[in-house]
């Protein structure tokens, strides 16, 4: 290899350069949607005495279906087949929702079964008690990946008719116009039902916000949360670059999240590659992020062409 030094061309020591390159480990972030769920923690609120109340994240029930467990188990096997325990170490993050935490736990257990190094989180940064004994020293909750649901009733409003709950405690509502607004919202959705929760949320959340001003649209989530996640990825890559000599393995960050956090991004960046058809992130589907040598964040989804995040 030729190098230019102070105006002179010299032959670089190829063996030395190869040795230096071998020291450079990689940093990548992998965002995975949670597995299939029955959304029991929202149902608990909707049929309670405060159906428009928030989810109690310190008192959740296990919320993966039997099919969801199997989907996550199979997806975890496929995911870790990409990596090598001798070369890769993992750092796990999750949304605060049980369906995300429980999916992440399945991935963590598969990583441990294969002998991958798991980077532990600081003792003082663990989250609170959880009914499923989530190991928070290995899985850290970060809000940027989550939903922080303040009104569970609004979440279910986007479901197709066949998934609507029939046990909502309407009689407990203090505001008498909430049900009326809810019914008007259902008229909007049924007039152009996309056949899925995400499809309806993506297409109709702005109209629903006109009836419920505190409702958060798909675009709102993208603008408020996606940029935070990109900053975290950039920071992680920078820290890794500064400290890579202290850790010879590639650092693979796994973050479990939701379609409503990343769905708008996927459609903004990849819809053209999808034949201009709306994209819905499937259960346990992955988005991969890396930071190139120029500090640009690059996203990869399915077999589409990589996209630079701007």
What do you see in this structure?
The chain is an alpha/beta fold and 310 residues long. It has helices spanning 14-23, 40-46, 66-80, 98-113, 152-156, 178-191, 197-211, 218-243, 259-270, and strands at 2-5, 8-11, 27-33, 88-94, 117-118, 139-141, 250-257, 286-291, 297-301, 307-308. A hairpin with a 5-residue loop joins β9 (297-301) and β10. The two termini are 34 Å apart.
Output the keywords.
alpha/beta; eight-stranded mixed sheet; 10 strands; 39% helix
Q: State Rg.
A: 22 Å
Helix and strand pattern: EEHEHHEHEEHHHHEHEEE
Instruction: Name the poorly predicted regions.
Output: 1-22
Q: Shape, please?
A: globular
Counting H and I runs of at least 4 residues, what is the number of helices?
Answer: 9
What proportion strand? 15-25%
Query: How confident is the prediction overall: mean pLDDT?
Result: 90
What do we call the CATH topology of one domain? Rossmann fold
Question: What is the strand tally?
Answer: 10
Task: Provide the helix percentage.
Answer: 25-40%
Distance between the termini: 34 Å
Task: Tell me the CATH superfamily of one domain.
Answer: Phosphoglycerate mutase-like
CATH architecture of one domain: 3-Layer(aba) Sandwich
CATH C-level of one domain: Alpha Beta
- Major pleated sheet: 8 strands, mixed
Secondary structure category: alpha/beta
In short:
The protein contains nine helices and ten strands.
Topology:
Elements: E1 2-5, E2 8-11, H1 14-23, E3 27-33, H2 40-46, H3 66-80, E4 88-94, H4 98-113, E5 117-118, E6 139-141, H5 152-156, H6 178-191, H7 197-211, H8 218-243, E7 250-257, H9 259-270, E8 286-291, E9 297-301, E10 307-308
Helix pairs in contact: 3-4, 6-7, 8-9
């Amino acid at each position: 290899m030729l190098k230019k030094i102070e105006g002179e061309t010299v032959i670089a020591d190829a063996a030395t350069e190869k040795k230096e390159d071998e020291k450079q480990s990689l940093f990548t972030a992998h965002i995975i949607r949670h597995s299939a769920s029955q959304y029991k923690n929202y149902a608990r609120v909707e049929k309670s005495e405060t159906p428009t109340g928030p989810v109690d994240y310190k008192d959740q029930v296990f919320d993966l279906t039997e099919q969801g467990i199997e989907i996550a188990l199979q997806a975890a096997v496929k995911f870790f087949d990409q990596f090598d325990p001798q070369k890769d170490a993992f750092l796990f993050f999750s949304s605060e929702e049980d369906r995300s935490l429980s999916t992440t736990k399945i991935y963590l257990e598969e990583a441990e079964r294969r002998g991958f190094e798991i980077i532990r989180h600081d003792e003082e940064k663990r989250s609170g008690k959880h009914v499923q004994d989530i190991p928070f020293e290995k899985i850290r909750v970060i809000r940027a990946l989550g939903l922080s649901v303040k009104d569970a009733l609004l979440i279910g409003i986007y479901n197709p008719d066949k998934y609507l709950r029939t046990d909502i405690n309407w009689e407990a509502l203090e505001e008498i116009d909430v049900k009326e607004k809810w019914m008007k919202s259902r008229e909007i959705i049924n007039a152009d039902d996309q056949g899925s929760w995400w499809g309806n949320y993506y297409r109709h959340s702005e109209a629903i916000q006109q009836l419920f001003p505190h409702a958060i649209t798909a675009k709102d989530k993208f603008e408020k949360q996606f940029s935070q996640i990109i900053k975290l990825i950039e920071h992680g890559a920078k820290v890794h670059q500064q400290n890579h000599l202290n850790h010879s393995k590639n650092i693979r960050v796994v973050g479990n999240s939701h379609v409503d956090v990343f769905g708008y991004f996927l459609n903004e960046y990849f819809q053209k590659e999808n034949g201009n058809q709306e994209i819905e992130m499937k259960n346990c589907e992955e988005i991969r992020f890396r930071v190139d040598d120029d500090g640009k964040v690059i996203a990869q989804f399915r077999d589409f062409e990589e996209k630079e995040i701007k």
